[in-house]
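FAQ: What does the model actually see?

It sees only this:
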Amino acid sequence: MKSSNNTCWHAASGDEALATLETIHDVLASQETEARVDRYGHNKFKLASSVSWTKPLLDEFRSPFVLILVMLGGAALGVMNAIIVRKVLIRRIGSISSACHRIYP
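And it is asked to produce this:
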């Protein structure tokens, strides 16, 4: 923001900034305070509406790239699960087979 004499706010002296803002360094009189509240309003921020944590999470999945990564991750988990199940079944069948051979030679 620039003041009326085209100097930047950060480069203006304190007295120049006070003059531009039409204020003083001391406390304002109550009449001046009321006039400024009427003119500019109360010094309050509007609160942003609260957003549920699920909305930003679901917004992440709108990207096609993220959807592809999720599908590839699911496929990788499915392949790993199939490999693990196969190894377990082979071990079980092998142990059952060896047990049968011991019982029925």
